[in-house]
Amino acid sequence: GQNIDQPTEMTATEGAIVQINCTYQTSGFNGLFWYQQHAGEAPTFLSYNVLDGLEEKGRFSSFLSRSKGYSYLLLKELQMKDSASYLCAVRDSNYQLIWGAGTKLIIKP
Amino acid sequence: IAGITQAPTSQILAAGRRMTLRCTQDMRHNAMYWYRQDLGLGLRLIHYSNTAGTTGKGEVPDGYSVSRANTDDFPLTLASAVPSQTSVYFCASSAGTSDTDTQYFGPGTRLTVL
Question: Which B residues in the span 1-30 are in contact with A, Cβ-Cβ below 8 Å?
Answer without folding.
Answer: none
